[in-house]
Amino acid sequence: MHTKLLLFSTTVLLGMAFGIHGVSAHGCPPEPTSNSTSPSAEVQTEPLQSHLSSPTSFGAIQNVLSQHMGQPYLWGATGPTAFDCSGLTQFAYKQALNINLNRTAEQQFNQFRHVSHNQVHPGDLIFFSYNGGLSIDHVGIIVEGQNMMVDAQNHGVVRECYMAPWWQGFIAGYARVIE
Fold first, then answer.
1. In percent, how much of the chain has pLDDT > 90?
2. What is the pTM of this model?
3. Which of 12, 147, 160, 161 is the S-S candidate for 22 at Cβ 3.0 to 4.6 Å?
4. pLDDT tens digits, residue range 49-59?
5. CATH number at residue 24
6. Rounded to whole angstroms, how far apart are CA atoms 152 and 74?
7. Nearest to residue 146, comparing CAs of 134, 131, 160?
8. Domain of residue 48, residue span
9. Are 99 and 35 in contact (CB under 8 A)?
10. Domain count, the chain
11. Dist. CA 55–CA 49, nearest whole Å
């Protein structure tokens, strides 16, 4: 377990140190922001912007996520002042839509119908495995933008590209919470 975490952490740090960010080759073109010219693969902690095309249910989830952007990561935390990955997804769905998600990423993975990458839309969950699918180790919520998610990770609650080099190889699947 420690070896996997070390390998993942080293991959992330090397990506940051050498300026490797998700770009069009990874499905994550830079998205302009009002105060930044950073590529979308870099973590973003500013509130999410609302779009008129959002379904009402995703709009409610987006509002909850926006209120908690930048909050710290704490393993085992379920909010409202700190979160781990599955604590964030559980909290967002409960607060926004009164939907109860199971506690862990793996339990959430098994709780809902899986969809393909081509079927993903905002509000779906994305899952990651650091050991080839033997366990589900991380979860995020798909948001608007090309291949974007909000998740709670070592930088806190952030919006980032899940097709960035440090995430893409670990994607285990997607699930639809709201049918």
1. 67
2. 0.74
3. 161
4. 433 233 678 99
5. 3.90.1720.10
6. 9
7. 160
8. 2-176
9. no
10. 1
11. 14
Q: Which single residue is written with the structure tokens 């379920």?
A: 78
Asked about 21 being catalytic, the answer comes back as no
For residue 85, indicate whether it is catalytic. yes
Rounded to whole angstroms, how far apart are CA atoms 85 and 98?
18
Which residue in the list 28, 68, 138, 161 is annotated as catalytic?
138
Contact status, residue 167 vs residue 157, Cβ threshold 8 Å: no
Q: Is 6 exposed, middle or buried (0-12, 13-18, 19+ CB in 10 A)?
A: exposed
Is 84 marked active-site?
Answer: no
Name the catalytic one among 68, 85, 124, 137: 85
